[in-house]
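Field reference: sequence -> structure
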Amino acid sequence: MRPQIHTATARWFDGAESRSQEVRVRLSRNHLEFMPWPPRGQSASSMPPSEAELAASRPSMPGLRRYTRKALRVGEWWRGTPTPVGLPDGGTIWIPADSAMGRVLGGQTLRAQVAGSWSLAVCVLVVLAALVLWFDRQGVSLLARVALPLIPKQLDVAVGRRVEEQLAATWMRPSQLPAQRQQAIRARFADIAARVFPGMPLDVRFARQAVRPGLHAMGLPNGTLVVFDGLAEVLSDDELMAVLGHEAGHVKHRHAMRHLVQGAGLLSLAGVVTGDFTSVAAGSLASAQTLHYARDAERESDAEAQRLILLEHLPNETLVGAWIKVLEQMRRDGRVDSGTAWLSTHPPINERIDGARRAAQNADPLP
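Structure field:
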């Protein structure tokens, strides 16, 4: 099959003068050649050279130039825009917008195709929006799960200590719960944890919120489980064991560190700038809003609490009773607000009750 040949009338800048000159261009498979048109000594009405004359490159055609296509520097083709073709000698030919030669020479990238077609651009935007939404909902979490085993657990301990220091310096105050009650709760949970969470370094501590007892509990990455006075005053010892089992579940599954890994880009940058990743991570975890765990993390921790309940032969509804008491106390205090419940580390309290009730109803007894 004979290779297709394209011809066009274009503008040529020789690289020395600012004025352009009209030229007749011929493009074959391997070469681009052109000559000024009309040639010197001929009128503008003269017929352009034939394909055979251009191919022969006869000396009788003054100003004829030929270049291999490999030596050309071709700009990207855009619809409705002339295509620039840089020549090895410094000149430039501008192929007119309505010529197929420009598209053959320059081609068109996907970016140019998207920019030149509104329907394709809309499709790309829809796909990008879907990808961003998926990554925000699931992709980041999946990435964190894969990366988490690569992070040494020594970092959990260091970050947890820093979090504890920062919380103690801001709004945690010494507990006013009787020492005998504190010791009894610690001793009982230590006995239970040895069976339910063997090998985990869990340490129960008590604290009081700066302006009120606080209906909170939290599990820090280093294994410190903090119980606030308000919660200990409202719940029974059995219910406190279930709540501590829930917080121990956060430590077991490294939910705090998983949350940090999901924001690893920002934290890594901050760590490079400050030179102290541990401090940056601790500062992030000490924020009430960043302590908000995803629902799958809460389900994992609820499952750990229910496992503790079953292994220790506590009533199946123990965790349900704990959340109901918290809700009643919040109502008495005029603080029935999903944003303040549980230091914003958990979903709304009504969701906690429903989830705990379903878990209790579906739980299989353990020997």
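Note: The first strand starts at residue 6 and ends at 13.
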